[in-house]
Amino acid sequence: MSRPLERRSEERLEATGVEGRRSAIVTAVRQRGFVTIEALAAQFGVTVQTIRRDLNELSAEGRLERYRGGGGLPSSVENIDYADRRVTLLPEKTRIGRLAASRIPSHCSVFINIGTTPEAVARELTRHDDLSIITNNLNVALSLAEATEFRIVVAGGTVRNRDGAVLGQLTCDTLSQFRVDVAVIGTSGIDADGALLDYDYEEVRATQTILAHARKTFLVADHSKFTRRPMVQVGRLDQIDTFFTDRPPPPEIALLLDRMGVTLAVADEVSEP
C-alpha cells in the first residue's frame, strides 16, 4: 500500500524540482538577457538535453524565447504565432474558460474580443440560453453560430488573416454602438504595476473600446502572461471587475488586485465550478 504513495510523493518532488529549475532559468535570462544552453547546464548541474527540454517548455508557455544555442527575453514587439497559441496551455485555458463562463448568466449581452483564452470562454458558453454576442473575433462568431441560436454581431473592419481578428476604425465604430452586460477580454502581458499590455496598436484600440462600453469586465489570462512584456498598453487592472487565471499571480500582482478591489478567480485543477 505504501509504494504507490511513495511513488506519487517522489513524482511531486521531481515536478517541484523541475519547476524550481525552470523558474530559476527565467530569472537568469531576465538578469542577463540571453544565456547559452551550456552555461545553464553548468549552473544547474544537469545535461544540455535537460536544458533544451526546459527551454522548449518555457518557450511554449511564453516565459522566454528559445533561440539557437540558448534562451532570451520574450519579444516585446511580436506575439507567438496563432497556431502555436491555440495549443499552448490548452488545458489551463479550458479551465479558465469554464470558470469564466460559469459567471456569465443566460439572457445577457457579452463582448468577446481577440485571443485564444477568450475563445476558450466562448466554447464554454454553448450551454447558456439567449445570449447576445458582440465580437471582433471571427473564430468566436463562427463557432457560436454553428453551435447555438445566439444573436451574434460581428464588428465591421479589416480581417487579420492569420487569426481571424477584425480590426480598424470601422471595428471601433461598430463596438462603440453597444453597451453590454459583460466584456470578456484577453491580454498578452500583465506588468508588475498593473498595466495590461499587447502587441498590436489596432487590436488595443478595439479592446479599449470594449472596456469603455461594458458594465462589467472579465479579464481571462493564463499564468504565462505574468512574464511577458509587450510594448502597447491596453489599460490597467483597475478597469477589471474579475480576473480569471489558472495559477495564483505573483505577490506584487496579488497585492494590486486586492488594493484595486479586483476579484481574483483561480481556475486550478481542484476548483472546478
Automatic annotation (TrEMBL):
Residue span(s) of domain HTH deoR-type: 18-73
GO molecular function, one term: DNA-binding transcription factor activity
Keyword field: DNA-binding, Repressor, Transcription, Transcription regulation
Keyword Electron transport: no
Keyword Metal-binding carried by entry: no
SUPFAM superfamilies: NagB/RpiA/CoA transferase-like, Winged helix' DNA-binding domain
Pfam families with a match to the protein in the record: DeoRC, HTH_DeoR
Coiled-coil segments: none
Protein name: Transcriptional regulator, DeoR family
Organism expressing this protein natively: Methylobacterium phyllostachyos
